[in-house]
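Title: Prediction job returns without error message
Component: structure pipeline
Severity: low
Priority: P3
Assignee: unassigned

Description:
Job completed but the reporter wants confirmation the result is attached to the right record. Sequence as submitted:
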Amino acid sequence: MNNIIIKDLDFILKSNIDWEKFRNKTFLVTGAYGMLLSYMIYSLLRLNELDSKFDIKIIALVRNKDKAKKRFEHFSGSKLLELLEHDLSSPIQIHTNIDFIIHGASYASPHYFIVDPIKVLMPNVIGTYYLLQLAKAKIVKGFLYFSSGAVYGKPVKGEVVTEKDYGYLDPLELSSCYGESKRMGENMCKCWNKKFGIPVKIVRPAHIYGPTMDIENDTRVFASFVNDILKGQNIEMKSDGSTCRSFCYIADATVAYFKVLLNGEEGEAYNVGNDSAYVSIRNLAEILVSAFPEKKLQITTTTKKDVISSERGAVNMLMSSKKIESLGWKCSFSILEGVKRTVESYL
């Protein structure tokens, strides 16, 4: 396994998570191939490696089993990892006991919001319905739903956004398919919690980055910038770069997800971001370039009118992490350290 990922997993497993609560438990994880969920699966399987008596079983739902086999190649010999091909457009047939469900299946790249909005919203709405019904049938001990900062829309109370602040979303905009369906997914979680007692907790990740990003296909700025660094080419800005975002390294974020799953309040949502890494897109580019001075790269700005940037028209938004910090979580990685680890992982 990648050396940086191993270091990240060691950091995660040394955090203040009560891992004993997962001993001899079975997890159903959707979106298992993605960056965020694969790190959670890596962490649980690493526990099995370090202590064979942990006996944590993972049923990983993926859209493409062949791609997933490569993602989890290090654990290919494990009898505790089962890859299940399913797109959540129909009920899921699981005949074994399930203790925890982690639902992270979703198309998150802005590219899909316009190209195939139905594919974006289906896992967040229809898929969430099927999983909540499954959680009810299996009487699960925990259900973690991956939402997004997109539920906030365009904030109306300034840059700092807490879990109680919501802004404007136009339901007739195609690009709202993501934010609106995430909102619906959250509301469904709340309803099933109220009526059936499903122990649902919700996380709203900010901009998470790190190893396992799909830097070739992900059009979001961090993945694009890292790809430029690795190719030794100048970073091309597709906007003026003034938009500010909170960036959080994947190892810190993974600890947060487990913390919410075990210690969060049922029916509640938690922002997951790094308040101290709230920077503009241009500043992010400058940090990446300065972290690797030997490459002698520069930052340029495109003037092409036909270039579409997901940052154009975006508003500044700092997703406050104070609520999740009340659970005893905090960020450990600075953005500079996270940037260096991310690039090194691809090298």
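Comment from assignee: result matches the submitted record. Residues 207-246+274-319+334-347 form a domain with the UDP-galactose 4-epimerase; domain 1 fold (CATH 3.90.25.10).
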